[in-house]
Design a protein that fits this description.
- InterPro entries: YuzK.
- The chain is built from three helices and no strands.
- By secondary structure, it is mainly alpha-helical.
- It has one domain.
- The chain is elongated and about 50 Å long.
Amino acid sequence: MDRNAQKQHIPEVMEKGMQHAHGITHEEYVNDLDKKIEVEKAREEDYRKNKELQKQLNNNIPK
């Protein structure tokens, strides 16, 4: 079976989230390797920034 035959139903909230956060549809994400790599790099950078912020906040909490 090819990819199109296995097309999955993506919940509307997930589709909207992908569109809002990355400006692409889930179908584009699945079918375009360059866009997928771009999204994953952005997610990784966001994760890294949030971990650094968490570390800074934890260091500022009095013990």
